[in-house]
Amino acid sequence: MSAVPGGVERSLGLVETRRVALWDERDPLVLESGEQLEFVEVAYETYGELDADASNCVYVCHALTGDAHAAGHHGDPARRGWWDNLIGPGKPLDTDRLYVVCANLLGGCQGTTGPSSIDPRTGKPYGLRFPLCTVRDLVTVHRRLLAHLGVERPLAAIGGSVGGMQVLQWAIDHPDELGSGLVICASARLTAQNIAFSAVARAAIMEDENFHGGDYYEHGVRPDSGLSLARRIAHITYLSEESMRAKFGRRLQHDGEPLRGFGIDFAVESYLEYQGESFVNRFDANSYLYLTRVMDYFDPLGDVAPVIERLHGSRTRFLVLSFDTDWRFPTEHSREIVRILTAARIPVTFREIESPHGHDSFLLPVPEYHRTVAAFVERQRLEAVGG
Amino acid sequence: MRPDLEVVAAMVPAGSRVLDLGCGDGALLAHLIAERGCDGYGIEIDGDDVLACIAAGVPVSEGDIEDALRDFADGAFDVVLLSWTLQTTRRPAAVVAGMMRVAPVGIVSFPNFGHWRLRAALALGGRMPNSPTLPQAWHDTPNIHMCTLADFESLTASLSLHVSERVLLGPGRAPAGAAARARPNLLAAAAVVRLERTARGASA
Question: Which CATH architecture has domain B3-197?
Answer without folding.
Answer: 3-Layer(aba) Sandwich (3.40)
